[in-house]
Amino acid sequence: MAGARSRPEPDLKTFLELVNGNVFTGFVVDPGRPADRFTVELLLDGLVIQTAYSDNYVRYAAEDRIGDGCHGFAFSIPQSVVENAAIAEVRVANLGIVVGVPLLLRELRKEPQKIPSTSRLRWVGGLRFSGWVDGGSQNASTLKVMVDGELIRQVTTDGWAQADDEINRNRPVRAFDFHLPERFADGCVRWLSVLKETDEELPDAPLPFVAFSDGLAAAIDGFGKLESERLRGEMYDHLVPMSLPMSRYDEWRQRFPISSGITNSLRCAVVLVGHGSLETTLESLESQIEAHWVTCAANKESDPTTFDAEMVEAFLTEHAADCDFVVFALAGTMFEPNALQRIAGAFSDFNDAVAVYGDIDLVAADAGVWPLALPAFDYERMLEQGYCAHLFALSRDVAESLIALRHSTLYRLFNALFDDGLHNSVNVIHVPGAIAALPPFDRHAASSALREATAQHLRQRRISADTTVSPTTSILPAVRVQRETPIGRTTIIIPTRDQLGLLRNCIESIMPAVEKCDADIIIVDNDSSDKATLDFLTAVDANRTRVLRIEGPFNFARLNNIAARQTQSDYICLLNNDIKALDTDWLEELLTRIAEPDVSAVGALLLWPSGVVQHGGVVLGSNFAATHAFNDRIANDPGYADLLRVAHECTAVTAACMLTRRSDYIGIGGMDEVRFSVSFNDVDYCLRLRESSKRIVFTPHARLEHVESASRGSDNRPDRKARFDRELLVLRSRWADAILDDLYYSPVLSLDPVPFSALAWPPRAMKPRSPRTHQAVDIPPGF
User: Fold this and answer.
1) In terms of pLDDT, which residue wins out, 357 or 422?
2) Are 159 and 177 contacting, i.e. CB atoms less than 8 angstroms apart?
3) Is 384 helix (H, G, I), strand (E, B) or coil?
4) Beta-bridge partners for 75
5) pTM of the entire predicted model
6) Which of 5, 154, 246, 488 is the most buried (most CB within 10 A)?
């Protein structure tokens, strides 16, 4: 028998350099097999320090037409470690081939360090592109956008982003985001390039893309409605969605007019409140389609949301005696022609509906119109923003009963629905798509009225809480609710493996809040081997902090599940070891939110060290999966519709910092350690809580720093990608309905990777909706 042949050692093209004093970067490529990717090792003084996968974009390789140019690597090493080393070299793992030439660090330290200029360009989907540019300057710059060699437009780097490369890690960089003209949505493959002011082309370019007007599914329908291909087109549209920028909202409204629905015979009473233009509102009411209405003005000489309850009661008894529902709106509101018909349709669709509200448009000082796309009913946001109380409708019997109690502000009238627990939030119906444009009003005065209304409502529910007006308002009024901290014990659970620097910083930063709330800490040690880490764990294992040692492969869900069963605390806070507290109040804030009996999980606002938002709640739908909201915003940005200024509900929050009830956690079996060992376990957990009618709350009033994946590394590594892909597939299979219909994310908004940043093209289902729960699909073992 002939002996087995071994593959000859490849003739590799390699390079290695040191930049910024602590980043080793370079590339390795086999010109004969350009599709191959290599794992490389960094050695300092002969010891292996880190490994990396060489799949970063490298201009040199791209310019030489070697494969796709993605053959680079980068190692970011602490400066103190590099300063104590003499020689650095990189080798191809297992083959031992030296990459570039070894670096004599002492000699290099005598030379000026190279500070590279790096950039990113990505196709977001459809006609949308984004990226960032870092040239060592924090100033905005102008870029040229080219398609197939033709100059299309110029864009400015007027945003901020978190750099996603090793060289710029944890630094804010100038970002850009743009859409191409609609003429490029023609189904043809095209190539896009972006040039700097120096005419230097950004990496990753030229970038191929293809876009279809109204999406691929609609294009396939136009070819003959082949059902099997239409389903393929729908999946493509989920993964690569079309969108339009918010600035083109007027065009969007004309292109996608909202149906008025089925004509019905319901009659409507309209109560106008405040000091806006009655003529404007009456003119819009005169234009209503298929609507029967009567109106009255019931304003008082005070804040813009106060009305005369006795006058409204008399109006309902006399002039509106035959009306089926009552609309309350600010005077000056401009109703869409089909507004009352769509509201009536919502009452017809939901027989148990007690209240209906819809999206509203905001008119800027320059008369530009911007969409305020709202979620299905959100109780927490109602308390802090009163978002649904500027234009809403009540069924007649409910309106009469509340007016009889002499509630006299729009905010108090609306939140009184929940004073005694008689009405369920599922009976509050949201109508997607604008039903009116909101008039200008005094937001500061409205904030004071909202504060008082929220305080009265909570007192009626016998909930002890402080309510304060937020110092700044942007779009809508804003107050902060601070309930009394609930009675009970809290335990913080922190899984870790080595990474002493991260763990020590985490423990030291959270300890003031831990002591303030009289909480405990469980450090879950998953096979740490570093001596310094082991010494630290031995020393820290004391009264308030205990160490739980669990062996085996890293399984985030399993580690937390075991720890949760080990404690008898009322609340558990799941916390990553790469979290750093920014104040002493974050834990108390989370506890005040979970004081509500139907709240089962609370998440915090997480920032990257650069100051860019890493987590502002989880939104479902993007890439037919889940994504963090507001990654395009920097700290102190109000966020879309002020969502980074007020607490609100969402479908899920990240377990990087999540407070939950232990009874709920144990009751539903904790996180799914079989199907979601590392990724999406928090999303699945929150969805299962929602399945049992629990609420998930995100609060921006608790802020922490998160070095995402610093302890574990990227899921793009080849040894992890298969696991990640499997967990993503299971998420899609188990929760497809929830992913396609996130009730806290409007069908008006796009499913781009950056939520709340663009308009959906076309919009998804625009039918009225209640905050119902989605049911999981039971997946048999092995599927």
Assistant:
1) 357
2) yes
3) helix
4) 24
5) 0.88
6) 246
Region(s) of the chain under CATH 3.90.550.10: 267-480
State the CATH class of domain 13-108: mainly beta
In this structure, which amino acid lies at residue 768? P
**What's the confidence (pLDDT) of residue 422?**
60
CA distances from residue 620 to 371, 378, 605, 731, 749 in whole angstroms, order as listed = 20, 16, 18, 11, 12
Residue the block writes with tokens 């959906």: 760
Residues of the chain with CATH 2.60.40: 13-108
Q: Would strands 657-661 and 599-607 be described as parallel, antiparallel, or unpaired?
A: antiparallel
Query: What is residue 61's predicted lDDT score, i.e. its pLDDT?
Result: 59
Residue 213 CA, distance from chain mean position: 27
Rounded Cα–Cα distance for residues 180 and 166 (Å): 30
Q: Are 67 and 36 in contact (CB under 8 A)?
A: no
d(CA 545, CA 543): 6
Q: What would the CATH number be for the domain defined by 490-745?
A: 3.90.550.60
How far is residue 537 from each of residues 454, 483, 545, measured CA to CA in Å? 46, 36, 10
Look up tokens 């009003």; give the residue: 441
Q: What letters, b where the CB count within 10 A reaches 16 and e where it falls short, cover 587-620?
A: bbbbbbbbbbeebbbbbbbbbbbbebbbbbbbbb
Which helix (H) or strand (E) element contains residue 771? none
Give dist(CA 226, CA 221) in Å, integer.
Answer: 7
**DSSP label at residue 612:** B
Residue 513: in which H helix or E strand, if any? helix 500-516
Four-residue CA torsion sign, 215, 219, 222, 226: negative
CATH 3.90.550.60 positions along the chain are 490-745
Task: Report cis status (omega within 30 of 0) of the bond before 762.
Answer: yes
Domain 267-480 has CATH 3.90.1150.10: no
pLDDT digits (tens, 9 = 90+) for 556-574: 999 999 999 999 999 999 9
Half-sphere exposure (CA, 13 Å, Cβ side) for 328?
Answer: 35
Q: Rounded to 5 degrees, what are φ and ψ at 430? A: -105, 135
With contact defined as beta carbons under 8 Å apart, do 476 and 385 qualify?
yes
